[in-house]
Amino acid sequence: MKDEELVDQIERNHQQAKLTAETKALLDYAAKLTLRPGEMQENDVAALRAAGYTDRAILDAAQIVAYYAYVNRIASGLGVGLEDYWRKA
Q1: Lesser CB count within 10 Å: N end or C end of the chain?
Q2: DSSP 8-state secondary structure symbol assigned to residue 82
Q3: 24: left (phi over 0), alpha (psi -120 to 50) or beta
């Protein structure tokens, strides 16, 4: 499978993409933290632990998701599209 095909599958529905169960669990966590952060509960972390992730890996994932949310909100708040930013860089 080509990378573009996998990206397309993930964009459409990561649960249907050809990914490991561990990766799907991580993407479930990232999607929920991004789209519905107020609904996060301990069982979301427990699901990652059950999938084999260490507490350090879970912390890293949470920080990366939060960082991208932060950057996107700053860009939106300043009226800057990320594409505009990268074209100037």
Answers
A1: C
A2: H
A3: alpha
- Give DSSP secondary structure letters for 8-45: HHHHHHTTTSS--HHHHHHHHHHHHHHH-GGG--HHHH
CB 46 within 8 A of CB 37: no
Q: What is the pLDDT of residues 11-36, one digit of tens each?
A: 899 898 999 999 999 999 999 999 99
pTM: 0.82
Q: What is the pLDDT of residues 48-64, one digit of tens each?
A: 999 999 999 999 999 99
Residue 21 CA to residue 73 CA, distance in Å, equals 30
Superfamily for 3-88?
A: AhpD-like (1.20.1290.10)
Return the number of other C-beta atoms located less than 10 Å from residue 20's C-beta. Answer: 10
- C-alpha–C-alpha distance, residues 89 and 77, integer Å: 19
The domain ranges of the chain are 3-88
